[in-house]
């Protein structure tokens, strides 16, 4: 993939992961009350870091 296309795809993946995290917030809060944590934060951080690395090139 070209660097520009890679950057756009990673940005879209990051935005999608943020939107997914927001949409799953009620489920995550209910799961947390039961003692279960969802790995949404890790997903958002991972895609954000990948986008930042690609944008810095």
Tell me the count of domains: 1
In which range does the helix fraction lie?
A: over 70%
- Radius of gyration based on Cα positions: 14 Å
Low-confidence stretches: none
Q: Kindly name the structural category.
A: mainly alpha
Question: What fraction of the residues are assigned to beta strands by DSSP?
Answer: under 5%
Q: How many helical elements?
A: 3
**How would you sum up the major sheet?**
none
Strand and helix layout:
Layout: H1 3-23, H2 25-33, H3 40-56
What would a concise description of this structure say?
The protein is built from 3 helices and no strands. It has 57 residues and is mainly α. The mean pLDDT is 91.
Explained architecture:
The protein has helices at residues 3-23, 25-33, 40-56. 82% of the residues lie in helices and 0% in strands. It has one domain (3-56). The mean pLDDT is 91. It is an all-alpha fold.
Keywords:
0% strand, single chain, 82% helix, mainly alpha, 57 residues, 3 helices
């Amino acid at each position: 993939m070209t660097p520009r296309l890679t950057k756009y795809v990673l940005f879209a993946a990051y935005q999608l992961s943020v939107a997914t995290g927001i949409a799953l917030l009620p489920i995550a809060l209910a799961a947390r009350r039961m003692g279960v944590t969802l790995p949404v934060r890790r997903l958002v951080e991972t895609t954000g870091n990948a986008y930042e690395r690609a944008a810095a090139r």
